[in-house]
């Protein structure tokens, strides 16, 4: 099964170009036979049900693509009940999820906790497996490009956490600038610039 990732779409009715960016992604995935899109947080700019109808229409239009969504710090309380679409699942709790031949640990944003804490809770279930982590927060290693719109640290993940728990790959949302895909820990970035600096 082919799987794609995105994050930080920040859908908002005052910014139709963001819906357009997601529409482009879904169209391209269908054209390439990709069956699953994992959204690593902040699909919506804020918790506002008026943002959902256009998204739901898009999901119905692209029903061959399964959308697996973890909430981010901008939309921490979204849930399956907000959408009711067959191809949309929201993971509001840390979940170990097999998809095809791969295993993913999906960690939604949660304030005042680190991703390492959430990995530790699933350590027994992860033992002996090869798996990937998908989360939303700040990777605390090396040079970190700060997010000027959100000062502070959000759901940190440290290099020690990665070394201790051993995910094969880490895919993160929260920082809007993508990092090189060959790294072990990557930010997928935002599919559309959210301001002039992006």
From TrEMBL:
Q: Which Gene3D superfamilies does this UniProt record tie to the protein?
A: 3.60.21.10
Q: Which SUPFAM superfamilies match?
A: Metallo-dependent phosphatases
InterPro entries (UniProt xref): Calcineurin-like_PHP, DNA_Repair-Maintenance_Comp, Metallo-depent_PP-like
- GO terms, molecular function: hydrolase activity
**What range(s) does the Calcineurin-like phosphoesterase domain occupy?**
1-177
Protein name as it appears in the record: Calcineurin-like phosphoesterase domain-containing protein
Q: Which organism is it from?
A: marine metagenome
